[in-house]
Structure formats: structure tokens, C-alpha cells
Design a protein that fits this description.
single chain, 387 residues, 5-stranded mixed β-sheet, two-stranded antiparallel ribbon, elongated, disordered N terminus
């Protein structure tokens, strides 16, 4: 397919968080919502409601039977006044909204909804430095400027004895069902994105693997410093690579949705019987190689829309381009890619200019199985340019 007209710049929208750009292109979905192909059976959903005192919840955090998702930067974004007014609400005996925990087979629980609230309370009461209350609305004259240790005993007791309600997802609930539950109830404050939910639900093994992958110099260079992303989009991209590397692009057809695909891969990475340590080493080596090869071919335009025509600067990182090109380039020798880089770039830019089916596959409903297969197949052909 060719065109004689000058190509128009694509309409690219960047994700924002706290009014700041994240460096990641926003994905869009078609307005028409497809029918649910696999509705969950009601008997698979098991939720128990439990009541705890805040003292009990903080004790569980300290003895690690209740986990606050370590290395979760998003849980620490509240400003000082927001934190202080949460503590003020507790002191005023205003009931806190319900929390949601995920329980595993060993009885350990992870906070999925309410992470910022519990982190704030724990920091105030048990943190090494804590923080002084600031910007209160009703208790300025009583506790403004005080830390927990400075509070009179009755105020300390009011915090420790405050009751919270938690809905605990039973460990026998299938992971896909559990993930879907948390997506449905994730509506408060600044809602968690998909990867943040997966992070809260997962175990340390998968977290550590994805963290190692994204904190490499190769990833940071290929993505212009995306490692340590505030909203964990870096780890989602590493997880997408792992999913397609483990299952192959054709394996995606067994899942039918990106959420199921990535959730299953997270579960696999958490269990050495599914993905042993030797395979993890191979995965991490493949990821580094893919990042280095992407830099060889595309320079600082790697994983970004880059249509032919006048220079428009750099667009945000595109997730669909990332997974397709990273998986494709992993199989090539860097010296071969360096020799053919000009031809590959021309082929890739041509696709992003005139192949509207390809543009659709990297822009909207990118989890549609047909679009996934098309972008992988077409990207693989472009990688052969110059041979």
C-alpha cells in the first residue's frame, strides 16, 4: 500500500499522573465493548469480611503477615497535608472506607486497596521518623504540629483502638478471578493501574525478576531513562516481554486478553516449578539483548511511533511497539542489525505511515488477538529488511 500524500502526524496522547507526563503513550479501546467470553462462576468468588483494630493491623504489618507491597512507589505519593488529615479523621473517629486484602495459602495477606491509607497510618504511628501533623481542619489547637509520640495517651489509644473493615479475598479464589475483583473495586482516590494491581497481588519472586529487568543499563538506555517508573509501566513492559518470550506470540491466542495473559505470566514467574531459575536467567539475558539491539537499530526512537515525513521530535514509548520489536530483535546478531539498521528503520517507519492496519494494532484495542498477531507478523517482516 502506498500513498502520494504527505503523511499526517499521528494523534498520540501521553499518559499523565499528578499532572505530569509519564513518558508512556496512552492506549485507547474501541467504544463497543465485546461480550464477556468467559464469565466467572459465582462459586469461584470467595470474599470474607473481617474487622481489625488499627493496632492489630499495624502489628501484622510489622510481623510481615500483612504486606504493604514493598517497592511500590505509588503508595507514597500523598502530600503532607493529605496524610495529616487522614490521621485527623481517625482521631475524629470518622470510619475509614473498607480495605481489600488478598490472602495466600499460607495465611499471609497483601493490601491491594487501601495501601496509601495503611502506609500513612503506619508511617505516623510506627515509622522510624514519622511525621508531624500539618494543615488540620478541626484539631489545630489540639494536635497540630505533633508527632505520634507527642500525643497525649487518650489520643494514642483512639488511633490504636480504631476499627477498620477489610474484605479478604480467599486464597482458593482463582488468580484471574481475584484480579478481576480488584479491577472492579479499584475506584477510590487515584485508582491503581493494571500493573500496580498485579504488583500488589504478586509475590516477591516475580517482583524481583521484573525489577532486575528494568533496572539494567540496557533497558534504561533503550527507553531513555524509563527504569523506576512512578506507575510501574516499566515493569509492565518487562512483564509483556516475559509473557511473549515464555509463550510465544501464538500462545497469546490461548488467553484472548492482555490482562489474562499477563496475570498468568506473573503467577508463573512467582513459582519456580513453572519458570525455574535457569529459565529466569535466560529470560533476563534475552531482555538485555533485545534492549541493546533496539538501541542499535532505532537509537533514541526505539519503541516510539516514528512516521515518515518532517521531524516531529520524540513521541512517548508505545507498549505494543515495545513488545513486538523487543521480542523480534532478541533473535538477531547485533552486528547484522547494525549493518541493516537503515533499511530496518525505513521499513518500520513506512509501516507507521501507510499501513493503517498496523497503526490500529499499536494504537487501539491492542489486546485484540488479531491485532496482536498482525503486529508481530508485520514487525518480523520489517526486521528482515536489507537482507
Amino acid at each position: 500500500m502506498t500513498t502520494s500524500q504527505s503523511p499526517a502526524a499521528p494523534d498520540v496522547k501521553e499518559e499523565h499522573f499528578l499532572d505530569a507526563p509519564t513518558g508512556i503513550e496512552a492506549e485507547t479501546e474501541d467504544e463497543e465493548v465485546p461480550e464477556i467470553e468467559r464469565p466467572w462462576k459465582p462459586e469461584q468468588i470467595r470474599v470474607n469480611t473481617k474487622q481489625f483494630s488499627l493496632r492489630n493491623a499495624l502489628d501484622m504489618i510489622d510481623d510481615e503477615s500483612l504486606e504493604l507491597a514493598p517497592d511500590f512507589q505509588r503508595g507514597r505519593v500523598w502530600k503532607h497535608v493529605q496524610k495529616s488529615r487522614l490521621i485527623e479523621s481517625v482521631l475524629l473517629q470518622i470510619p475509614l472506607p473498607a480495605f481489600y486484602f488478598a490472602e495466600d495459602a499460607d495465611g499471609f495477606m497483601r493490601v491491594v486497596d487501601g495501601l496509601q491509607r495503611l502506609s500513612t497510618i503506619h508511617d505516623f504511628v510506627r515509622g522510624q521518623e514519622g511525621f508531624a501533623l500539618k494543615g488540620l481542619e478541626y484539631l489545630q489547637e489540639t494536635v497540630e504540629g505533633k508527632r505520634f509520640d507527642d500525643l497525649p495517651a487518650p489520643w494514642k489509644r483512639r488511633i490504636n483502638n480504631a476499627q477498620i473493615m477489610a474484605h479478604v479475598i480467599d486464597p482458593t479464589t482463582p488468580p484471574d478471578v481475584m484480579y478481576d475483583i480488584f479491577k472492579r473495586i479499584n475506584t477510590g482516590g487515584t485508582p491503581l493501574n493494571a500493573q500496580e494491581i498485579r504488583h500488589c497481588m504478586s509475590k516477591d519472586r516475580s517482583r524481583s525478576i521484573l525489577k532486575r529487568m528494568t533496572l539494567t543499563a540496557a533497558f534504561d538506555t533503550a527507553t531513555n531513562g524509563l527504569g523506576g517508573h512512578t506507575r510501574m509501566n516499566d515493569r509492565e513492559m518487562a512483564l509483556r516481554f516475559a509473557a511473549f518470550w515464555l509463550h510465544g506470540p501464538g500462545g497469546y491466542l490461548d488467553f484472548g486478553s492482555m490482562d489474562s495473559f499477563l496475570q498468568r505470566t506473573t503467577t508463573m514467574l512467582d513459582h519456580p516449578n513453572d519458570v525455574d531459575d535457569a529459565t529466569v536467567e535466560q529470560l533476563e539475558a534475552a531482555f538485555r539483548r533485545a534492549m541493546e539491539n533496539a538501541r542499535v537499530v532505532f537509537g533514541d526512537q526505539a519503541f516510539r511511533k516514528w512516521p515518515q515525513g518532517p521531524d516531529t521530535g520524540k513521541y512517548p514509548i508505545n507498549r505494543a511497539l515495545f513488545e513486538a520489536w523487543a521480542i523480534t530483535l532478541d533473535d538477531y546478531d547485533p552486528s547484522d542489525l547494525a549493518r541493516r539498521s537503515g533499511a530496518i528503520v525505513d521499513a518500520a517507519r513506512h509501516l507507521m505511515t501507510v499501513d493503517y492496519r498496523y497503526l490500529d494494532s499499536i494504537t487501539s484495542s491492542t489486546g485484540d488477538a488479531r491485532r496482536v498477531m498482525y503486529r508481530f507478523e508485520t514487525t518480523a517482516k520489517a526486521a528482515e529488511a536489507g537482507r
